[in-house]
Amino acid sequence: MKLSAAELRFVSLPLVTPFRTSLGTQAVRNALVLRLETSLGEGWAECVADDEPSYSPEYLTGAADVIRRLFLPKLFAMGELDPAGVAVALDGFRGHPMAKSAVETAVLDASLRATGMCLSTYLGGVRRRVPVGVSVGITDTIDELLGLVDRYLTAGYLRIKLKIEPGWDIEPVRAVRETFGSSVPLTVDANTAYRPGDIRHLRGLDEFGLLLVEQPFPPEDLHSHARLAAAMETPLCLDESITSARDAATALRQGACSVINIKPGRVGGYLEARRVHDVAQAHGVPVWCGGMLETGLGRAANLALASLPGFQLPGDISATARYYTQDITEPFSLADGHLEVPTAPGIGITPDPASLARLTTSTEWITP
Ligand code: SMG
Ligand code: MG
Prior knowledge:
By secondary structure, the protein is of the alpha/beta class. The chain has 14 helices and 13 strands. It has helices spanning 60-78, 83-90, 97-115, 119-123, 142-155, 170-180, 199-203, 222-231, 245-253, 264-267, 270-282, 296-305, 320-323, 353-359, and strands at 3-21, 24-38, 41-47, 129-131, 134-136, 160-163, 186-189, 212-214, 236-238, 259-262, 287-289, 338-340, 360-366. The strands form 3 sheets. It has a 7-stranded parallel beta sheet. It starts with a strand and ends with a strand.
């Protein structure tokens, strides 16, 4: 397979409700859509970097720059392309996992489409549908939060994740438990908002029977995560800290977590995501698929990943209506708290041309 041209496209999708986390508030999802034209046909992917480097060091226009100026020229120069070879070639560039993931996924999509195989089968998926949860942002009032949780439970979501930060943790969790009962699968995600001195405070979450506490401390602080994990009954899950299978092995060896959130963009692609899954499985540790407010392109590919056997907890792969009134692809909808894993070749979906055109803010053609 040879690459002949690439299209880099910025799209802008208003969120149905602003999403507030400890990192800030987001009202619009801007994303980068990559379309490769190859000798075997098209390949599609999205880059999940945010506008600003707050969740991770990457940001959208920076990702576009590294793809445009370095990654694509490398691919044009390679001649024969295959997904694993692309991953090795891009390994020569440090960092930029979200940009790498987009390029590798588009190559993977094109090559799987050409052979007629779906991504789930390629990765070793074992499920036709996957259980999903929903990530609930920080709200102005507890009443507002309870209203949202009620709506999502009524819709059938199988797990509720509450975003927390100092000053918005014990009370909202208590209110959700008191209102909806102790059997609702519940987690919290701090997006690195706490400091080592908060360990005693965070232990206060133990009384609520949470499935897990996600990433309380900064990404590089495995030591504090290990201390908290030892001090707390609730399982500790890492997200931002895990950028590779090697990181996963290190964190598990240090006792810094007992659950892992896997996001392909954060670890540099679906091939590395599968390796993180394999490391976790070797340690007997469950994983689940995280979310980055993906468009339908990323959602389709994440569903394939979440069909692997080690994905034992509901993912942050909610139905389209949770995020957007209009997506660039056909919508995904919830049935019994599950989403179906796409079975069409490649990532299993392509953008709807009219929706894509409507939501596009700029397009750029890149040729050798
Ligand atoms: O896609 O449903 C989704 C969002 C899930 O909470 C979510 N993602 O840290 O897990 C996380 C956040 C990262 C994105 S918001 C900064
Ligand atoms: Mg997280």
